[in-house]
Amino acid sequence: MDVLLVYSKAKPESFDLIGRIESHVRDSGHHVTKVAMEEFGTERYAADMAVAVGGDGTILRTFHHLEDPEVPVLPISFGRGGYLAEVGPTEAMRALEMTLSGSYYLERLMRLRVEVDGAHLTDGVNDAYVSSKEPGKVIECSLSIDGLVLQGIVCDGLVFSTPAGSTAYNFSCGGPAVDDALESISIAPVAPITYFRPLVVSAQRTLEVELTSGSGSVLVDGYVRGDVKGQVRVAKSPVGAYLVRIGRAPLFQMRLMKRLGMIVR
């Protein structure tokens, strides 16, 4: 089995764990490719499984650099949030052993297909953020659902999120936390001037943002960026993101407990 091991150079405290994971994978008779997320370029990696050690940023970038977008990823939290991971540093080696022995199951997360001016940009796991290309400027746009223009909007930006991403930027903007069992797309405005409140629509809908003034930018999963001249289209992607799971606790409840716990503290 070919295993892709992704880590962050910004977390030197994780290097010892990275070394132990790499050695254990090799000692188990598997091939391992180790890559720092800071070294990612445009390449995609062929692998049968990936292990991502770090925060949510590391985990999300790993999904975007897989040759096969549905290769399963074992996320090990070594960051501030770790909302996509159920395993931390202390449980990492046990989780790795269980994974290599086949004692795991997969959880499929919905992804967003993001098109910019008619061209496919990427498939987001968490969210897509549409904003002005100029920092500090609002965007003027119209929002359509299945081709029907809902309304004109003036705001700092619009956040489109999957259920998995609903506890991230969407939640910070006043959007609802959405159960992963509900295939849906959430839309949350950032500092709207016009009257607009967060919405949740069926994942069967196609959403379009048409700029009515100026140029824009779209940022997917805080990582993949595209310049927008006219339109951004967001819909459910035909591909999913697969997480390697060890425990049986629902990921949604785990994410929500972490999010609310951070707010309380």
Describe this structure in words.
The protein is an alpha+beta fold and 265 residues long. The protein folds into 2 domains: 2-109 and 240-264, Rossmann fold, CATH 3.40.50; 112-236, Tumour Suppressor Smad4 (Sandwich), CATH 2.60.200. The protein is 18% helix and 39% strand. It has 5 helices and 18 strands. The chain has helices at 15-27, 56-64, 92-100, 169-172, 251-264, and strands at 2-7, 31-36, 49-54, 73-77, 105-109, 112-116, 119-124, 127-132, 139-145, 148-155, 157-161, 184-190, 199-202, 207-213, 216-220, 224-228, 231-236, 241-245. Strands 7-6-17-14-9-10 form a 6-stranded antiparallel sheet, with no helix packed on it. A 6-stranded antiparallel sheet has the order 13-12-11-8-15-16. Helix 1 (15-27) packs parallel to helix 3. The longest helix is centred in the last third of the chain and has 14 residues, at 251-264. The radius of gyration is 19 Å and the shape is elongated. The termini are far apart. The model has no long low-confidence stretch (mean pLDDT 94).
List the helices and strands and how they pair.
Elements: E1 2-7, H1 15-27, E2 31-36, E3 49-54, H2 56-64, E4 73-77, H3 92-100, E5 105-109, E6 112-116, E7 119-124, E8 127-132, E9 139-145, E10 148-155, E11 157-161, H4 169-172, E12 184-190, E13 199-202, E14 207-213, E15 216-220, E16 224-228, E17 231-236, E18 241-245, H5 251-264
Parallel strand pairs: 1-2, 1-3, 3-4
Antiparallel strand pairs: 5-18, 6-7, 6-17, 8-11, 8-15, 9-10, 9-14, 11-12, 12-13, 14-17, 15-16
